[in-house]
Amino acid sequence: MKRKRVSKAIVHQPGAQLYERFVEAIKERIRTAQIKAALAANVELILHYWDIGNEILVSQKRVGWGAKVIDRLANDLLREFPKLSGYSARNLKYMRAFCRGLPGP
Q1: Which of 7, 21, 48, 89 has its CA 20 to 30 A from that of 65?
Q2: CA–CA gap between residue 40 and residue 34 (Å, rounded)
Q3: Residue 46's Cα: distance from chain center in Å?
Q4: pTM value?
Q5: How far apart are CA 75 and CA 69, in angstroms?
């Protein structure tokens, strides 16, 4: 199948230049929205990690659970969410330490 050739003369028409600016403005809005969404997701994830760390700390103090509760929690989460990563015992310990080191939101 042959492709049609677009005349370069069309690009020099005033309407085409307006369209090019229009397209660039839309592209910029999309990029800005993507950045804002990524930043919002990162903020939510940080709050989520802090919240989990806080729950672990509070529960360990209130109920008297030891460090083994983190291993059990990691195993339970893995069983419930087998495709979800980031909730290993090591990461849960990092979340607890992160919460301990930062004041609440």
Answers
A1: 48
A2: 10
A3: 9
A4: 0.71
A5: 10
∠ CA 80-82-84, rounded to 5°: 100
How buried is residue 38: exposed, middle or buried, by Cβ count under 10 Å (0-12/13-18/19+)?
exposed
Q: What is the pLDDT along the chain (105 residues), one digit of tens a residue?
A: 566 555 555 556 777 888 999 999 999 999 999 999 999 999 999 999 999 999 999 999 999 988 899 999 999 999 999 999 999 999 999 999 999 887 766
Phi, psi for 65 (deg, rounded to 5): -70, 145
Q: Residue 84 is encoded by which pair of tokens?
A: 């979800």
Whether the CB-CB separation of 49 and 95 falls below 8 Å is answered with yes
Do the beta carbons of residue 77 and residue 87 sit within 8 Å? Answer: yes
